[in-house]
Amino acid sequence: MYQNQYSNPPRPQQPRKPNNRPASRRRWLPWLVVGGIGAVGAAVFAFIGVLLLVGLLGNRGVASGVSIAGLSVGGQSVEAARTQLKQWAARPVTVTDGSRSWQVSLADLGVTVDVEGTITELKNAPAQSNLMPRMNIDLVTTQNTLVGLSQQVNIAAVPDTPPQQGRSMEIPVTLSRLQADADGELVDGILELDMIVVDPPPSDSRGLDSSARVTHIVEAGQELALIARQYGVEMDDILALNDISDPDLLYIGQELLIPAAGIYEPTAETAPAAPTSSGKSILVSTDDQRIYAYEDGRLVHSHLTSTGRYETPTVLGDYKIYVKYLADDMSGPGYFLPQVPYTMYFYQGYGIHGTYWHNSFGRRMSHGCVNLPTEEAKWFFDWASVGTPVRVV
């Protein structure tokens, strides 16, 4: 069938709407996308940079030329410096008395090193600094260690012919130094002991029955001269009875035959007169190195004591107990003693108290106080009261 080519005439084209958007805006679009991506990337890189910076600052090394306790740690990492400090804290300390020496640890001396606190100071230290480690010290532990060491350190005095002087650790003075400056005393790993010269005690034979016998068990810190004084006999008699050639060769637990019926106890005839005829009273004899307890003028108890040395004498005169403490920290010029047991003060800082830093009762040993074995100090502490008269002669 013939179809007229004009039967479906073409539609007329619609006029195109004009594009009102400016051409420049279309050109910026890609750049906006690229810029946004770049900004996000820059922020990410900046954040990563901050993290890296913080990390680097937190782990930065020690400034150049810095040392601590004589250790050169400048330029090292903090971790390397920490390792060196821990090794330093674990090293032994040499305790010395001139040519003699012994080794203990810082822990034995009651010392702990604050490693992390020291490291904090180290990280902030400027170049060329010389720091001291942070230390804490428990002086009770220090004292206990020195007391235990004294059995090896002390040299007994011998009332022989001629008499031989001894040497003894002066623990209160050493404790005072450590209390004042533990860092400075221990930083080089050496602790110099304070020692005193000890004179032999005088002979104290009381003319006892030489046929009597008693067995004495040697305790820590005891020496033959003072054992003889405790029983009121001659040291030579103990040596002969026990076939001992060297009075220094005693050991803990050793059994000694003593030519006496027991520990010497003064009688009413041999004791000094009581300070008062009524009530309780105490008398301390610096010549006899003995303390006496009386009730109504009658002797009820006595024991060897250690009063002040000649350079630090115990005050003489009549006093009264004015305060009592179960334990008290005691200090004075150049000495310190923590938690001294059963302390009774009778004049200013002078007191009667227990003593665990020496066992040399029967000779002058103190800085002015009246030293007693702890169990004897407890007896006087329980027996006496505030106001009890004390006479020192």
Outline the structure in words:
The protein has 393 residues and is an alpha+beta fold. Among the domains are: 67-166, no CATH class; 214-258, Membrane-bound Lytic Murein Transglycosylase D, Chain A, CATH 3.10.350; 280-392, L,D-transpeptidase catalytic domain-like (Beta Barrel), CATH 2.40.440. It contains 8 helices and 21 strands. It has helices at 23-58, 78-89, 115-123, 139-153, 171-186, 224-231, 235-241, 374-383; strands at 67-68, 71-72, 92-97, 100-105, 111-113, 130-131, 135-137, 166-169, 190-192, 195-198, 214-217, 255-258, 280-285, 290-295, 298-304, 317-320, 323-332, 335-347, 350-355, 370-373, 389-392. It has a 5-stranded mixed beta sheet, with no helix packed on it. Strand 1 and strand 2 form a beta hairpin. The chain is elongated, with a radius of gyration of 42 Å. 32% of the residues are buried.
What attributes does this structure have?
five-stranded mixed beta sheet, alpha+beta, elongated, 393 residues, L,D-transpeptidase catalytic domain-like, Membrane-bound Lytic Murein Transglycosylase D, Chain A, single chain, four-stranded mixed beta sheet
